[in-house]
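Worked example

This section walks through a single chain of length 118. The input is the sequence exactly as stored; nothing has been trimmed or padded.
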Amino acid sequence: QVQLVESGGGLVQAGDSLTLSCAASGRTFSSYDIHWYRQAPGLRRELVASESSYGTIYYLPSVKGRFTISRDYAKNTAYLQMNALKAEDTGTYYCAVDCDGTGSVDFWGRGTQVTVSS
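Given that input, the structure is written out below as tokens.
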């Protein structure tokens, strides 16, 4: 069992930055694929960024160059640094892990709200 707790969301203005954190507990963090998803009201949840256990990184094209995914193994925490935020980045951001590299999410966090005012 893995517990994921996101933090760092908030209300910001367009152009501002935020860093989301995802603290993991329950099992070792280093061998997981880490994902950040977001969901805006009325829209489907979408994958924003991923980092595999091997270090392969993916970004949604609309956030590439503005967002950075990373993890601190010592703290068992993943991060999503978000710069130059836009109104369309508004949504609930979820941390998720794939524990065995199958491509499916095994555990989800409860999410943290990010609201960007234009």
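What to look for: The mean pLDDT is 94.
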